[in-house]
Amino acid sequence: MCSFRPCWTCCCLLLFFSLEVQGSPKPPSAAPEQVHLSYPGEPGSMTVTWTTWVPVPSEVQYGLQPSGPLPFQARGTFSPFVDGGILRRKLYIHRVTLRGLLPGVQYVYRCGSAQGWSRRFRFRALKKGPHWSPRLAVFGDLGADNPRALPRLRRDTQQGMYDAVLHVGDFAYNLDQDNGRVGDRFMKLIEPVAASLPYMTCPGNHEERYNFSNYKARFSMPGNTEGLWYSWDLGPAHIISFSTEVYFFLHYGRHLVERQFHWLESDLQKANENRAVRPWIITMGHRPMYCSNADLDDCTWHESKVRKGLRGKFYGLEDLFYKYGVDLQLWAHEHSYERLWPIYNYQVLNGSQEMPYTHPRGPVHIITGSAGCEELLTPFTLFPRPWSALRVKEYGYTRLHILNGTHVHIQQVSDDQDGKIVDNIWVVRPLLGRMMYL
Predict the structure, then answer these.
(1) All residues at 6 or more sequence positions from 3 whose CB lies less than 8 Å from its CB, including other chains
(2) How far is the C-alpha of 17 from the C-alpha of 146, rounded, in Å?
(3) How far apart are CA 287 and CA 264, in angstroms?
């Protein structure tokens, strides 16, 4: 018995000194972090979402002056979220929607409670109606490691270059990684952009773990599908976000493919009835229908699942989008930039030889997944396909300017070339006779 006492004493001393060096564990924080905005689809509104580590009230204080008191208050709710990892880490997601905002006016806000407030952020309320020219940053596949486009996106945001961000799937790599800690780190990284602009999302394959639970919990999109599919209006455009992932992770329910497809058809019907007000229909989904990358992804197969549906014949999206005259289809997944000629069923449908994107006879596809992540860039096949107009294997992101009801401007920014514009096209569609391609 006595022979073990020195070892026991040593262990106690080691533990004591270890705690002295590390300090006692920090109590869970009530201070807000991971602050980001989204547009709930209701004109004159904006939703603020943030995280705390203890359950505290959810409040946003806001006003028009950069300093001094913030005279307006809005309250919301919080929901506990338990990550599916082995540690079962619990965080509290707070959501507050601000309403009655003046269109185009800049607001200053902070979020939190008496137990802790965020710093002050600024945002500009979206303008109302179809008669203005929204500017968007568009990209997918942005990671917590190697987020190459992020510093330039932050500078663009500070200069007021955008009205909203479209993140076309694949976040953090991955939101659930290391018991959700990578997700926490990523949400803090994007805060300088996402707390200043509505950060609109769709799910990608890297969000799949635990039935997309981190994606559903951390973002606040319009509608009632936890951000899997929804639509919203922005200036002269109707924007539809949907999940390509329902076609691949069928163990979460085949019924999701059917439900989403019928919702898409209904939404597209309504959007076509409203073409006189909002002429542009734009979709965003993670995995493309077409691509010319040198890998074995779905888009490299002739009968890709997103394009042709389950078993090549059920709930395919190309026919649906062509039938209802979708103008522009935004994709990611491939870590590169590729612009296609207007296309349907492998047929190039250019407006004319001289001006292929003026009055095109089919939708325009843009694949923009080169914002930067740990998986680096994706190579292309040696020779481009006949339907591929431009391929860029460089880090970067897309700028989308919806000028008016007839003109949309698309640019690709290369981060490798210090912000050089490496693609620059206008898509021009007539206002009259603007419905379906058929």
Answers:
(1) none
(2) 37
(3) 17
Cα gap 35→42, rounded to integer Å: 20
Q: How far apart are the first and last CA of the chain?
A: 90
C-alpha pair distances (Å), 158 with each of 89, 121, 154: 34, 11, 6
- The Cα 256–Cα 243 span in angstroms is 10
- Among all chains, which residue has been given the structure tokens 């926490």? 184
The β-bridge relationship of strands 328-331 and 280-284 is: parallel
**Residue with token string 């009632």:** 224
**DSSP secondary structure letters along 215-256:** HHHH---SSSSTTSSEEEEETTEEEEE--SGGGT-GGG-THH
Q: If DSSP codes are grouped into helix, strand and coil, which group holds residue 115? A: coil
Closest CA to 167 of 212, 125, 198: 198
Amino acid at the residue 262: H
User: Phi/psi at 424 (nearest 5 deg)?
Assistant: -160, 100
**Bridge-based pairing state of the strands 164-167 and 135-139:** parallel
pLDDT in tens, the chain (438 residues): 444 344 444 444 444 444 444 445 577 889 999 999 999 999 999 999 999 999 999 999 999 998 889 999 999 999 999 999 999 999 999 999 999 999 999 999 999 999 999 999 999 999 999 999 999 999 999 999 999 999 999 999 999 999 999 999 999 999 999 999 999 999 999 999 999 999 999 999 999 999 999 999 999 999 999 999 999 999 999 999 999 999 999 999 999 999 999 999 999 999 999 999 999 999 999 999 999 999 999 999 999 999 999 999 999 999 999 999 999 999 999 999 999 999 999 999 999 999 999 999 999 999 999 999 999 999 999 999 999 999 999 999 999 999 999 999 999 999 999 999 999 999 999 876 555 666
Does residue 174 have a cis peptide bond before it, meaning omega lies within 30 degrees of 0?
Answer: yes
In angstroms, how far apart are the furthest CA atoms of the chain? 96
